[in-house]
Sequence to fold (329 residues):
Amino acid sequence: MNWCHSQNVHRDVYKNPVLAMNFPDPAIIRGKDGTFYAFATQGTGLNGKPVHIQEAISKDLVHWKYIGDALPKVPEWGKVKKEYWAPTIIFDKKKNKYFMYFAAERNIGGKCIGVAISDHPEGPYTVIGNPLVCGKGFVNIDPMAFDDPQTGKKLLYWGSGFGAIKVQELDDSRTKFKSGSKPINLVNINFDKDYDKLVEGAWVIYHKGFYYLFYSGDNCCGSGTHYAVMVARSTNALGPFEHLSEATKKHSSVILHLSNQWIGPGHNCIIQDDAGNDWILYHAIRSDNKEKTFRQLLLDKINWVNGWPEISNSRPSDYLTPMPIIHHS
Fold:
């Protein structure tokens, strides 16, 4: 296994990127052993072979080891198109299982959200049954599983395809939606606001009485790359959510957008270090990348100001930065 890491010159600082390979749509979970596990949309592994769901591990959120495919066996309903996107992982303490939610192109077309389980955070993950939800185009992508700390409800956020980001309650099995539940629209597209023409990549955290919904828009990559991270908050995990722009009376809810060196920052996840600091991991493309498709893994600290998250300069850092504080046993 090869280590891929940031441009470190001292053990207490780092410089982006923290993983200098194509690792789009990252999601992260910390295992019981303290190791961080990051998962990403399909790509090409270190041996040049296709990887369905990419995975890397780290002890400090800065130095990452690429370990290959977390989903080596694909579902029967998605084996023809061979497209696997945007995984997310959650641990069920009662079941002592890790659940992966991912998007895949079904054999007859249209994206679906599938479920896979494993006894270990690194996998391998085994697909369970039929998809949770399917539809035309890419409406059903970018799932994010979240257990509401206030109510105990098991929730799934997802959505794109020029539709709303939505949420729906899962049943106790985590493989089906709860009987009688319906999807609730939370964040709608808005053609009058920059980056809101398409919304996707939801990630939810609970912080000091509020649920914060981070999301991205509008075009992640390619020649028309135009992408950023935005945020909304609510006192209820099921909404309604107030956009940052509504609270501040500004035109935009963007908290992270392009810099001179990095374009298309977005599709983030959030993790906390051992000092209680929140960190955002996300993908971005070097501005000199010709195809505008090589999305590397970046890391930046979140600061909380007047009840809202902020990132220094609202841009990816491209200078030496203090590392997250991680206590190693």
